[in-house]
Amino acid sequence: MHAVFASYAKELGCSYIQDEAGNSYLVNDPSDGYCLIASHLDSVIEGGEYDGAAGVIAGLMCLRWARRDGLRVPLRVGAFRCEESSNFGLCTIGSGLITHESYKENIDSLKGKDGRTIAEVFREKGWSLHPKKISGIGEYLEMHIEQGKVLDETKTEVGIVGTIAGPKRYRMYLNGMADHSGATPMSMRNDALCAAAAIILEVERIGHREAAYNSVATVGVLNNAPNVMNVIPGEVTIGIDMRGIQKESLDRMERDLLRAVKSICQFRRIDCRQEKINDVSPIRMSPETEEGLVKAARELGLSFRRMPSGAGHDAMSFPPLCRTGMVFIPCRAGISHNKLEYTTIPSVADGTAVMYRYLKDRYGTR
Ligand SMILES: [Zn+2]
Description:
Layout: H1 2-6, H2 8-12, E1 15-18, E2 24-27, E3 34-40, H3 53-69, E4 75-80, H4 93-99, H5 118-125, E5 137-145, H6 150-153, E6 158-164, E7 166-175, H7 192-209, E8 216-225, E9 235-244, H8 247-267, E10 271-279, E11 283-284, H9 287-299, E12 304-309, E13 323-329, H10 345-363
Helix pairs in contact: 3-10, 7-8, 9-10
The chain binds zinc ion.
């Protein structure tokens, strides 16, 4: 896909470069102060065709229009690597590495699904896990399919993102006692799966309680051992994912969760080991860019709504470095990370037009 991306350089009158982390760019003018329009080209297994790729296409369209109109700002279109956490368990690796925003800690020993470490893969490709920080960037824009149903259900043409939700994630290892399911009286059990069930429902309640703040809470993964019909479950692992755009709400959810887990496990005589795997504060897009994008949508006569992003995106890494904005387009029935994922070419064109109109308003044309 990066080779296909590079092949557009000639047609668009650009040069192609790759940074030290393997991310690809088309550059129409190498000067500093450029606007980077980017997204990712990797996908989840069994995923769709639009998550990431639609945003890269949007960038290519902007490059073509910029050339036609003589847009007065240098443009770069970027295609990041490893945005999805499917293989190494970490998201936005390509953009996180070059902005030095994520992964300040060492990630060299992370293993992929095939057992190779990310360091081995990077070495083989000639890339670096410790690249120098991106420089000269003046602004970052990204278009992405919403991956939710809000735009589709409300028949809204584009979404302007205000804040990207920060995830708090926990893994809980619940240890009870595996026993014979026939011979162990009800009063003498330490059933780890029942504790997990109580925690799962509590997580749902916590999510509902904080829904007014656009927060969500999910248990999406559970491992039950020994997972046998005639054995009381002794060891259960669950993964808890809480997200929100308000730090206070996220903190409240975390506090409520830990309190509930403690009391459930005490009551059920279950040992619980907790592992916090993620704690990211909500990330605000730049208000000036957000307003500019809203104005652009209005000028184009497109229906729009301001909205948060529940999913993480490459755009998360840029606000500390430069002005950052994000545009959503609808995807059918909100389905994503699935082969049924679908958006229309007119939607891609709408989202792109909003970004481009914003750039024209802000920088002008020759
Ligand atoms: Zn994506």
